[in-house]
């Protein structure tokens, strides 16, 4: 491609609201352009990256036996009513009425369409398994679209839906997809982990997220330093914490503790380690029709994990409770404990059967000591804690370490949630109608462009990996008036194209400084600068990662490029 | 591809509302599936055809120097306000509000997005020309979606937008696109014509439609039998009609013509040919804010062409006027003529300066004779007639013939309509700011799948052309219990794949009759039936077009397939 015939309108101005390097460089490099809150159009460079990523995804999905389809972007609301999601899906689901006042949605995901595509068409277990996927536009009306295409409202996603006769076969496909996704992200040159994940609102019996490890990640993930265990903090488990400090042996007693409202103060007053204290976290749980104040108890040195807490109580959302709301619920802030509490509460499961604990007495300026956390009903105990760096791996006891990650894929074992709701069945070996067992599998295709930059950039711009870059290399003509240079560069360009390299030649009538700045911003893996040193038979090879520069023989330029790129 | 691992759920049931073969066969063959009024999802076979067509379009567009982009499907309403179309576009434009009550549209076309992509980025004539295109989902909220994917609401379209420094360069690109489109439709194996078209609401200085000639076409097109002239009836021109019959010489006179309300009656009463009579067609013109009764006068033996009439008066729509509306407008139905008429009217330009004409006298039971159509103002004369079969070519005088066509592409010279409205300018050679000259160019990608079937099918199903078929051939195993046959068919399949053919093997455990019916319905260009004749070293070659069957040597099967397909 000739830069003079291409359209990559680079600029020095970053978007005002941009904080992430990927957002800044994608806009400055003319890859994408904003066209409204969370809405982006893809310029030629952005479209090239969309296609490159899509092609890798498609290739591996096809090799795994999945079949590509295309669901309509606008979907009939009736399908969403059948599954029950039309009313329960939040405001992210963009609902609209057409000219005839009928309801439609712009697809944020396509479980319903996928079920509709097999319902009454796949009738026998003999036609299973079946895996249908698409790479298509999605829309989610995010409350706070941000970070450029990393969290936009319109985005391109690969979403696949598999149908099985039983749970074993679903599990087989789930494992196949884990392997397939690993191949895809490896081919894209990414440093990623498959982590245990919260299945949340999608439901089902198990899910894994694929996380790319980057400094600016939105998600906290915990990885074991000695085995393969890794999990999103929302779903991370650990070995129960070992006791530390002297056991504060005492008979049960209500103790006067004036103004002792924090764990730190309690621990100091009683001279016990925080291990023996119980912390109350008070939240307001929002449900579809009502809300409720709920207390979550965790060990004094632990923190509440919000998603776990939300799953514990089945709320749509948890928000902080106001002082008045806490008071009206009959809760004494600062002195709240599970013994004799007159409000809904849950206790972290690690506290079960702990003895000699100290907790609030639900009375101003009083705590209980010598408490046994044993006589509560089993369903009060839930996994509630936020696992931290240094906690022990639940599998091997190794150390867990906290990293930041960005989600790029998520695979779910859905089970029969959607097929049952939509009454989509097949006849099994015994001629009995059963709902399909389903899996669903997503990859954020457009988001991956940003993730690849988050994972690899410097202060000057993108640093694309050679596995998947918009172009393999840029051939830069330093000076268009240098006839020898122009001739050599054009020949090199033509030879590179002929030998299968995907190169761009910067043949624009621009100053050399502009061309170098643009090269560094666009970030193709290599550049060949054809300049004055051509007189001595040399050109400059720039390696974008590290911006290393070396003089090489001009006659070797193509050979060296090919070596570096393979 | 193995049919046993594929998903083409064929059925004998045609959709209830289906009248066109393409609609019936696309649904019966499991290419597409309806998911709401005018909404279709594409199953694997449909997706394969979408990709095949897209790839041909993309290849030729890239060769012509256009650059592929991707505009967001959801577009900010502000862009549409800037161009002025947010308010004037009809109900086909799907407008919706997001969770923050801001206005958006689902793109029916992307002139605004294209202008936004170059505005303030292309600043100099040196950066021109530039042609950006995408292949993307569109949505038009059609009042009456019908004919399956031929007139759906959601569809896939290739839309391109070019930017130029002057009208000459736009004209050059327009001609290049005419040539490019011709290559595309030729590669798709279609019998098409590029015809002169009405530019209508899009505006601009010239446009051409690409029409595929098919029996079930929605459009009337006129093609010259001796030169290349072809036009949509909406824009068709002709040589002025030659007079016939005796000239009814008479001095101007108002004649009593009781109950003589039709052209036929007038012609019989006066014993003159219809050539010398004037017909009044009375319409109600709908504008954005009001409506008006307008009379269109054409020669007695001509018909009014609605689109031409609409363009003449600039109305958004023309509808029939009721008896009351006609009366209230002061028009005497059956006796209406241009002389002394107290209503808005236009006259067909072929009538200009005609003499010895007969027309209504705007008085019950009276006509004027001996009328000269000469003293009216020039702007009353417009091209209003519907050109018919047998009319004479405006270029060479040959005979025009009427055909039915389906529009598959449309190219426009837009001029500066959108760039001016959106204030998108560049600096010309003299440093003066000028609005871009623009062209726009569309191809109905998803509709082409249906068009290809309309153009080539029989009563049993699709008959794909070998240029662009979902698969080149089907290898049919007659009987899965025939081990020799299964072995031979699988070897042939593998060899065909290895030599670059795109074949499907029907290895399903189904009766032979089912397989043959499915083959005829899906309609790949060739089939090889591996059956009993293999004992004598033969297989059957079926040519789908004509369903011709021939025994060929089994050992020659691959060679013959390759010969037929090249």
UniProtKB/TrEMBL annotation, chains A, B:
Gene3D superfamilies (alphabetical): Anticodon-binding domain, Bira Bifunctional Protein, Domain 2
Protein name per UniProt: Proline--tRNA ligase
Domain notes: Consists of three domains: the N-terminal catalytic domain, the editing domain and the C-terminal anticodon-binding domain.
Gene Ontology MF terms: proline-tRNA ligase activity
Taxonomic lineage: Bacteria, Pseudomonadati, Campylobacterota, Epsilonproteobacteria, Campylobacterales
InterPro entries, A to Z: aa-tRNA-synt_IIb, aa-tRNA-synth_II, aa-tRNA-synth_II/BPL/LPL, Anticodon-bd, Anticodon-bd_dom_sf, Pro-tRNA-ligase_IIa, Pro-tRNA-synth_IIa_bac-type, Pro-tRNA-Synthase_IIa_type1
Protein species of origin: Campylobacter gastrosuis
Reactions catalysed, as given in the entry: tRNA(Pro) + L-proline + ATP = L-prolyl-tRNA(Pro) + AMP + diphosphate
Coiled coil: none
EC number, as in UniProt: 6.1.1.15
């Amino acid at each position: 491609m000739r830069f003079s015939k291409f359209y990559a309108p680079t600029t020095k101005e970053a978007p005002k609201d941009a904080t992430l390097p990927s957002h800044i460089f994608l806009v400055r490099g003319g890859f994408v352009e904003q066209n409204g809150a969370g809405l982006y159009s893809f310029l030629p460079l952005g479209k090239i990256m969309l296609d490159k990523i899509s092609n890798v995804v498609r290739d591996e999905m096809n090799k795994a036996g999945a079949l590509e389809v295309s669901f309509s972007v606008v979907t009939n609301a009736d399908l969403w009513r059948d599954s029950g999601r039309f009313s329960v899906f939040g405001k992210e689901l963009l609902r609209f009425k057409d000219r005839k006042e009928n309801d439609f949605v712009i697809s944020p995901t396509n479980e319903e369409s996928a079920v509709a595509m097999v319902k009454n068409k796949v009738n026998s277990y003999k036609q299973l398994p079946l895996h249908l996927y698409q790479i298509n536009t999605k829309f989610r009306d995010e409350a706070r679209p941000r970070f450029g295409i990393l969290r936009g409202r319109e985005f391109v996603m690969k979403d696949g839906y598999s149908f099985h006769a039983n749970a074993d076969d679903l599990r087989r496909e789930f494992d196949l997809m884990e392997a397939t996704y690993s191949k895809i992200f490896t081919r894209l040159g990414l440093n990623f982990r498959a982590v245990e994940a919260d299945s949340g609102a999608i439901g089902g019996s198990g899910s894994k997220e694929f996380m790319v490890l980057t400094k600016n990640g939105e998600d906290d993930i915990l990885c074991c330093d000695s085995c393969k265990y890794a999990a999103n903090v929302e779903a991370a488990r650990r070995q129960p914490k070992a006791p530390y400090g002297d056991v504060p042996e005492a008979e049960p007693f209500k103790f006067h503790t004036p103004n002792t409202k924090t764990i730190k103060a309690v621990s100091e007053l009683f001279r016990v380690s925080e291990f023996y204290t119980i912390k109350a976290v008070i939240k307001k749980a929002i449900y579809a029709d009502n809300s409720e104040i709920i207390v979550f108890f965790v060990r004094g040195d632990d923190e509440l994990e919000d998603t776990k807490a939300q799953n514990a109580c089945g709320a749509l959302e948890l928000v902080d409770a106001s002082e008045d709301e806490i008071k009206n619920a009959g809760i004494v802030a600062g002195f709240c404990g599970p013994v004799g509490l007159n409000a809904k509460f849950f206790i972290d499961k690690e506290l079960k059967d702990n003895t000699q604990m100290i907790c609030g007495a639900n009375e101003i300026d009083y705590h209980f000591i010598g408490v046994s956390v044993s006589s509560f009903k089993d369903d009060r105990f839930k996994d509630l804690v936020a696992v931290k760096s240094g906690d022990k791996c639940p599998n091997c006891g190794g150390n867990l370490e906290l990293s930041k990650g960005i989600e790029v894929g998520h695979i779910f074992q859905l089970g029969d949630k959607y097929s049952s709701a939509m009454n989509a069945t097949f006849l099994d070996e015994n001629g009995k109608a059963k709902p399909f067992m389903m899996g669903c599998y997503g990859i954020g295709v457009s988001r991956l462009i940003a993730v690849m930059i988050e994972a690899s950039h410097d202060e000057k711009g993108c640093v694309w990996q050679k596995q998947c870059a918009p172009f393999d290399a840029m051939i830069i003509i330093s000076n268009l008036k240098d006839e020898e240079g122009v001739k050599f560069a054009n020949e090199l360009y033509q030879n590179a194209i002929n030998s299968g390299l995907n190169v761009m030649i910067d043949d624009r009538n621009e100053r050399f400084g502009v061309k170098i700045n643009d090269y560094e911003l666009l970030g193709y893996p290599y550049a060949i600068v054809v300049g004055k040193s051509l007189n001595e038979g040399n050109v400059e090879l720039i390696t974008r990662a590290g911006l290393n520069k070396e003089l090489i023989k001009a006659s070797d330029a193509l050979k060296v490029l090919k070596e570096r790129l393979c």
